[in-house]
Amino acid sequence: MGNxxxxxxxxxxxxxxxxxxxxxxxxxxxxxxxxxRGGGVGAIGVGLMPAEQLRAMIHEMRKQTTAPxxxxxxxxxxxxxxxxxxxxxxxxxxxxxxxxxxREHIKLLRDAGVSVWxxxxxxxxxxxxxxxxPRGLACLRSGRNRICIRCSMNEHA
Length: 157
Known about the structure:
Blueprint: H1 7-12, H2 29-37, E1 42-45, H3 51-64, E2 69-74, H4 80-89, E3 93-97, H5 103-111, E4 115-120, E5 137-142, E6 145-150
Parallel strand pairs: 1-2, 2-3, 3-4
Antiparallel strand pairs: 4-6, 5-6
Helix pairs in contact: 3-4, 4-5
């Protein structure tokens, strides 16, 4: 099967417009690598993983693929150290579930060139799933959640 070209595939450099769900406690490097090898954006779920263990996982991913991947975090956990590792390592994407990250964390990641995805049951009022918002976000509906993808790395929240 050939490439499917969309704004998503062009933005993230993947073959197919598919992103693996984060699954914070079940998204392993093996699963992420399989999705990357299949042409999508793989996801590693880190849950309560210590920051240095996350750094090792990121290095392992990079040893085995050049494809984009996503580090998935649950927003209401204290994940400051994990977020800082993601910014230092300049991972392609960090996704947050069950709430919105702080403006400080969004700025830190975006300043490092990291794309920020947010999935929450309630999207901010400016998040419209039918169009790109004025804040450089593309919002998609996924079941009961809306996924707001921060598309512009140069714009700050």
